[in-house]
Amino acid sequence: MLGHHYTRTFMETAVASLNAGCNLELSYGMRDNVFMHIPEALAMGNITLQMLRDRVRPLFYTRMRLGEFDPPSMNPYSTLDLSVVQSPEHRNLSLEAAVKSFVLLKNIGGTLPLRAQDLPGKRLAVVGPFADNPRVLFGDYAPVPEPRYIYTPRRGLETLPANVTFAAGCREPRCQQYSRAEVVGAAGAADVVVVCLGTGTDVETEAKDRSDLLLPGHQLELLQDAVQ
Predict the structure, then answer these.
(1) Contact assessment for residue 61 and residue 67, using Cβ atoms and an 8 Å cutoff
(2) How much is the mean pLDDT over the chain?
(3) 194: helix, strand or coil
C-alpha cells in the first residue's frame, strides 16, 4: 500500500495478504498493524472464518512444536545454555552446510578440489577485497561472531601445506583505490590463484538495492589482472 501502491487501505491490504497465503505480519507497532483490520474484513465478508482458521493453524502448530505451551521443565530449549554456542557439533554442521551449498560453475581440468597431498612446494596466491577482511564476509542480518571463529579465505588457505601469498588489491568492496601492481605481483608468481570478490553490506542490504549486477569499483579489472 505505502511502497508499491498495490492496495489503497489497510483492510484491503489485509485481505490481499490473506488471499495470497500470508499469515504473519512484521509490523512496526499497533498503529500501522495491517492485520488488526482482519476482524473488520471478516465482519464485512471479505474473508471467511475458514480462511482465517487455515491461516492461523500453521502459526500455532509451529508454536506447539517449539514448546511454547509446555511447562518449562518439558521444553528442551529451556535447558540450552552458552555451552552450545560454537560447539564442535554445531561447527561441524555449519561446515557441512557450507560444503553442500557451494555452487561450482566450471572446473576446467579438474582444478578443484585443492588436495593437500598435491600442494607441498606449490605457490598459492589469494587476492581480492574479500580475501582477508572479516568485516565484509557477513550478510545483512547476520550475527556478529567472535573473531577467533572467523576463517577468511586467506586464513583457511594458510592451513594448507602450500606457500601462500596475499594481496588485497583494494581494501573494501567498492574498490575505489586499486593497486594493480600488488595483485599482478602476487598472481604472477603463483601456481594457483584464488580470487575473492563480491559486494557485501557496504554495497547492498535491505533497502539498499543496485541498478546492475556488475562487480563494484575496480573488482572486474582486479579479476582480469589476476587471471591474465
Answers:
(1) no
(2) 92
(3) strand
**Cell numbers 601445506 correspond to what residue?**
161
Question: What are the mean pLDDT values of the chain's consecutive 10-residue runs (228 residues total)?
Answer: 92 96 86 89 96 96 93 89 90 92 91 89 96 92 84 94 96 96 96 95 89 94 94
Residue extent(s) of CATH 3.40.50.1700 domains in the chain: 103-226
Please give the Cα distance from 54 to 135 (Å, whole number).
Answer: 43
Element housing 181 (H / E): helix 180-188
Any bridge partners for residue 195, and if so which?
127
Please state, in angstroms and rounded to a whole number, the distance separating the CA atoms of residues 66 and 76.
Answer: 9
- The domain defined by 103-226 carries CATH number 3.40.50.300: no
- Please state, in angstroms and rounded to a whole number, the distance separating the CA atoms of residues 44 and 56: 19
Cell output for 58: 500453521
